């Protein structure tokens, strides 16, 4: 293992080092590729910092490496270091009111520079991992996605980001945030590499390619955009029609569907009536009253004792989120888990085995750095409505860059049934070739 100083310029790296591939890794799938890992993964001989210096100070070096990291090393890839992340991975929830700033800013270690828009946030909490890929510092990187921490920075940095089906990729050796939502995700610039990494992490076997049965466009979700929706829809639909024909495409109101098929949300929809003009009521109820409650409750159980004992120095927004989480009770927590089951069942029926749901990743391009948090509230609420669909259902989701709007990156997301990760990766690879040509 060799050590060097962090890379200057983009600020993506927390620590630079070299973990070479397995000595026997010649002509393996990932031979010749470099990668970085979020500072939430254990790497033997290094302290896993969790984005906070007090965490690093009070924890020992890791005695083993996380299985997800080991698997790509054994497949021939070379690790070049760990990346900056939001403190405690807590970027997406509990700002003034309800939600977080989805930013990637860290008061202790700085904010990695968005390689596509230097005056804009890179997205949290896997910000450094996304920037490392977007800035061509590595070929791919590993991150984690609980509430959107891979999908958001992928969208903001103009790269591909994959959140796998919940429970498919091992989270051993990864500091938990909220275990019922935590996933190990990854970033890449090209679909071929995204798929190659996925084949290793997902332990995919060679299988007969499956063709798309239907592409379902969530029309109401596109109405949440702060840019013209046709910029995201038309290019994608044109490529799918060329590949599969227009008969494969249908449109739906996802909010109405979820409201009808997830009965445990009805009470919470009524309690959010005042927010309906800016949101989709059923998805707002799903995100604010279900997903966020679960994150807070599980975060408290995982880290509350450490926070009370150490009283760590947090950035002001993170401090607010953490202490709010520590006040969470188990009230309505059983309903949160039942909502997940209901949503998973409903979306499975909607999509079938080889259907794909299309929706925006986030409501628009990345916000400016140091934007006043209160001005981001509507944007964040809309974003979490979109992000909570895959989070609460446990389905797999990929964010795909679709060019620029006024010089800023924009993206669309594809969601597939739990366990259909290989199918989704294949579809992205095929689709991307036609998106380039269209």
UniProtKB/TrEMBL annotation:
InterPro entries, alphabetized: Amidase_CS (IPR020556), Amidase_dom (IPR023631), AS_sf (IPR036928)
The entry's keywords: Hydrolase
Pfam families: Amidase
Segments forming domain Amidase: 25-189
Tagged with keyword DNA damage: no
One annotated GO molecular function: amidase activity
Enzyme nomenclature, EC number: 3.5.1.4
SUPFAM superfamilies named among the record's database cross-references: Amidase signature (AS) enzymes
PROSITE patterns xref list: AMIDASES
Similarity section: Belongs to the amidase family.
Protein name: Amidase
Source taxonomy: Eukaryota, Viridiplantae, Streptophyta, Embryophyta, Tracheophyta
């Amino acid at each position: 293992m060799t050590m060097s100083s962090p890379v200057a310029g983009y600020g993506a790296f927390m620590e630079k080092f070299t973990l070479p591939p397995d000595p026997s890794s010649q002509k393996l799938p990932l031979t010749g590729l470099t990668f970085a890992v979020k500072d939430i993964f254990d790497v033997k001989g290094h302290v896993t910092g969790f984005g906070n210096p007090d965490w690093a100070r009070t924890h020992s070096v890791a005695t083993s490496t996380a299985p997800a990291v080991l698997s790509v090393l054994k497949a021939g890839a070379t690790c070049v270091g760990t990346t900056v992340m939001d403190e405690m991975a807590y970027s997406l929830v509990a700002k003034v009111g309800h939600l977080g700033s989805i930013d990637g800013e860290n008061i202790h270690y700085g904010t990695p520079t968005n390689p596509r828009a230097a005056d804009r946030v890179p997205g949290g909490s896997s910000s450094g991992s996304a920037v490392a890929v977007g800035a061509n510092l590595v070929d791919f990187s590993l991150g984690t996605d609980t509430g959107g921490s891979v999908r958001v920075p992928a969208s903001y940095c103009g790269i591909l980001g994959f959140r796998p089906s919940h429970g498919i990729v091992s989270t051993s050796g990864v500091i938990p945030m909220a275990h019922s939502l935590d996933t190990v995700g990854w970033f890449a610039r090209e679909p071929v590499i995204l798929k190659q990494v996925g084949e290793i992490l997902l332990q995919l076997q060679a299988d007969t390619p499956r063709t798309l049965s239907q592409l379902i466009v969530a029309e109401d979700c596109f109405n949440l955009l702060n840019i013209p929706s046709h910029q995201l829809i038309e290019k994608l639909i044109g490529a799918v029609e060329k590949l599969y024909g227009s008969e494969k495409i249908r449109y739906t109101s996802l909010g109405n569907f979820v409201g009808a098929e997830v009965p445990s949300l009805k009470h919470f929809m009524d309690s959010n009536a005042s927010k309906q003009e800016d949101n989709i009521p059923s998805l707002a109820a799903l995100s604010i009253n279900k997903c966020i409650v679960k994150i807070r409750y599980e975060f408290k159980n995982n880290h509350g004792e450490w926070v009370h004992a150490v009283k760590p120095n947090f950035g002001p927004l993170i401090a607010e989120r953490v202490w709010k989480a520590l006040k969470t009770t188990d009230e309505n927590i059983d309903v949160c888990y039942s909502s997940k089951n209901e949503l998973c069942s409903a979306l499975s029926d909607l999509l079938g085995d080889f259907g794909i749901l299309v929706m925006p990743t986030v409501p628009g391009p990345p916000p400016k750095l140091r934007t006043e948090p209160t001005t981001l509230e509507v944007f964040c609420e809309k974003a979490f409505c979109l992000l909570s669909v895959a989070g609460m259902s446990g389905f797999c989701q990929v964010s795909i860059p679709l060019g620029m709007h006024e010089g800023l990156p924009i993206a669309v997301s594809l969601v597939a049934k739990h366990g259909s990760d290989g199918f989704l990766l294949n579809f992205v690879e095929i689709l991307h070739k036609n998106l380039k040509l269209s």
